Amino acid sequence: MAEEKKKLIQFKNIVKSFEDGQVVLKGINLDIYENEFVTLLGPSGCGKTTLLRILGGFLQPTEGKVLFDGEDIVNVPPYKREINTVFQKYALFPHMNVYDNIAFGLTIKKEPKDVIEQKVMRMLRLVNLEDYAKRNVTEMSGGQQQRIAIARALVNDPSVLLLDEPLGALDLKLRKEMQHELKYIQEEVGITFIFVTHDQEEALTMSDKIVVMNAGEIEQIGTPTEIYRRPVNEYVARFVGETNIIDGVMLEDDLVVFEDKKFRCNARGFEKNEKVDVVIRPEHLDIVPRGDGMLKGVVKSQLFKGMHYDTVVETRVGTSITVKMQVSQDKPVVNDAAGEKISANGFLIDVEDVSELDDAKIVALASAEAWDSETEEPVSIKTVVNDIKGETGNYTVTFSTAAGTSITVKALVVAENRVVSKVYQEEIYAMNFFKKVEDIQESMALDTDLETWASASAWSLEDGEQVEITDVKYDFDPETITPGVYDVTFCTEGYEYKVSTTRAAEEGSEVGLIFRPEDIHVMKKGVHR
User: Which candidate, 321, 325, 322, places its Cα nearest to that of 428?
Assistant: First the structure.
């Protein structure tokens, strides 16, 4: 029977907030065991370094406890903790040689010279620098300086070594070498290493356990294999390695539907017909002749990476609709005799909505308004005269005040603008529309505004549920737009798969994709730890 590992460090409900009100850690609970290589992985600002500094004694938590071997060490100063830290910039003493840098902590403790020499030489052998003992540290390479910093931290026999992005200053080749060397050192000295990084490859290469963090919270804890092959949610799946995430539905245990096809998988514990996220890693897909494919698509791009090709295969274009946006820069009409100004825009309306028109709706559609030239106080629009009919075509609308100030604009009645995709069982709708130059230039979220102005929407023909419009395309620069007519296209989501394969394929070629049931990982939607 395998010996159960001892729980060495426990973070209990650790909260850390700063004076500006920013909450960096939001109730962290984490257990770390003896002799583990644990990596805190996450983007900048996720709280991983803050958690490390709390463990090292450099920061105090706002709430919570840190237990070390069962005792709370929150109020224990750093120099009394059995913990040493290696920082990204190493913090070596430039006026000392390699030997003296490593021996510094032992010298401060006034250890006997023979003990110091024995311990320092052991560390030099461990980091493969025994021939450099008398060399000045400023003459050493980045990788050598890093090994010196590690040796200096380990010579004091700590129970835990904290490493705060120690590989960040190294070039790619040296980083890869040091990843393996760090793991070797950790196994040789047999103590707990806690490593902070935002580099997924480093975490997967070295760790016994990975803690994925995001916005001050832990998203998932697991072995590298568990984190990579069985992420708990979309954040982890996308952050740790390249991936494909597809909307799916669980029909029953081990049977999932995506892209309107049924696929066998290894997934249980879901409700029948539960909506899920399906994850397939690029290396678990392969390209085959189109007729042999479980999915069929077109090669959009392929990049040769030496041992494999990074390929993108599009299996679904999505449903799209294109409408016209007429942009004007109409100046108001000035009536000097009455001391009034009036303005209005041309507008578009669906033929099916003509029967519901009244003066108030026409004023709103045209953004018609009048005002006093001096005071800029609003003036009522007295009459609205139009020749609009329930047929497609161009019509005129004239707005007038009681004093006779008037403006005439065009109204375009258009047929219902819908696109139905029988292949994807979707329908998408949008209206042609008029806008002023300043409306475009002043928009803070143009894609959203264009969607609103065009009343764009899409839905499933199977269950009537709304389908998200994921892309808005247009052929103008919002900052320099001039009056004219522009195309605006609204699209629902298409499907593209990233494929890591040894097979070459020409861009534009029709291909098939294959995968195995065990290559499909199913996640609940919107799950957070």
Answer: 321
Cα–Cα distance list, 188 to 67, 123, 184, 206 (Å): 26, 11, 6, 14
Do 330 and 451 belong to one domain?
A: yes
Which amino acid is present at 395?
Answer: Y
Q: If you count them, how many residues does the chain have? A: 529
In a domain, 89, yes or no: no
b/e code 208-233 from CB counts within 10 Å (16+ = b): bbbbbbbbbbbbbbbebeebbbbbbb
DSSP state of 466: B
Q: Tell me the C-alpha distance between 196 and 212, whole Å.
A: 11
Please indicate, yes or no, whether residues 121 and 167 belong to a single structural domain of this protein.
no
**Residue type at 73 in one-letter notation:** I
Summarize pLDDT for 159-204 with one digit per residue, the tens.
898 988 877 666 677 777 778 878 888 888 888 999 999 889 889 9
| 357: CB partners within 8 A, 6+ apart | 349, 388
Do both 421 and 351 map to the same domain?
Answer: yes
Burial class (CB in 10 A: 0-12, 13-18, 19+), 1: exposed
* Neighbouring residues of 209: CB distance < 8 A, sequence distance ≥ 6: 32, 36, 37, 38, 39, 221, 222, 223
Residue 307 and residue 364 in one domain: no
Residue of 92, 54, 88, 93 whose CA lies nearest to 72: 54
C-alpha span between 363 and 399 (Å, rounded): 8
Hey, what are 500's tokens? Answer: 């890591």
**Cα 472–chain centre separation:** 20
CA atoms within 13 A on the CB side of 138: 4
State phi, psi for 121 to the nearest 5 degrees. Answer: -65, -35
In terms of residue numbers, what domain contains 217?
Answer: 1-82+158-241
For residue 278 the two structure tokens come to: 């399906």
Angle made by CA atoms 390, 427, 524, in degrees to the nearest 5: 150
The model's pTM is: 0.69
- State the Cα–Cα distance between residues 422 and 427, nearest whole angstrom: 9
Residues 421 and 495: their CA atoms lie apart, in Å, by 15
CA–CA gap between residue 519 and residue 269 (Å, rounded): 18
The string of pLDDT tens digits covering residues 330-381 is 688 999 999 999 998 888 788 888 999 999 999 988 889 999 999 999 999 9
| Mean pLDDT of all residues in 30-51 | 93
